[in-house]
Write a structure and sequence with these properties.
Blueprint: E1 2-9, H1 15-29, E2 35-43, E3 46-56, H2 59-67, H3 69-82, E4 85-91
Antiparallel strand pairs: 1-3, 1-4, 2-3
Helix pairs in contact: 1-3
Length: 95
């Protein structure tokens, strides 16, 4: 299992566009056969920061996600173009 979070910071005036982009990206990502979980969150008290919790069956499924048309369109061509900050935390399950 591959699990991680992605933290993204955006400008306040782009909140509606970012929310719609995330909705479309999450909807498509959840349909991937190797996607276990794809859940975008808005950080309480910081509405311009988004945390996405992602889980994939294995590294091959994650690679397929990153190569997908919807990821290229909505993440690379959308979110990545608007983000002000980005960080990733790779997670290891305990038990």
């Amino acid at each position: 299992m591959v699990s991680f979070t992605v933290r993204l910071k955006f400008a306040a005036d782009e909140r509606a566009e970012i929310a719609e982009t995330l909705r479309l990206l999450a909807e498509a990502s959840r349909k991937e056969p190797g996607c276990v979980s794809y859940i975008p969150h808005q950080v309480e008290g910081d509405p311009d920061t988004v945390v996405i919790y992602e889980q994939y069956r294995d590294a091959k499924a994650l690679a397929a996600h990153r190569a997908s048309e919807h990821f290229q369109k909505h993440a690379v061509g959308g979110l990545y173009q608007r983000m002000r900050e980005r960080s990733v935390e790779n997670l290891t399950a305990l038990g």
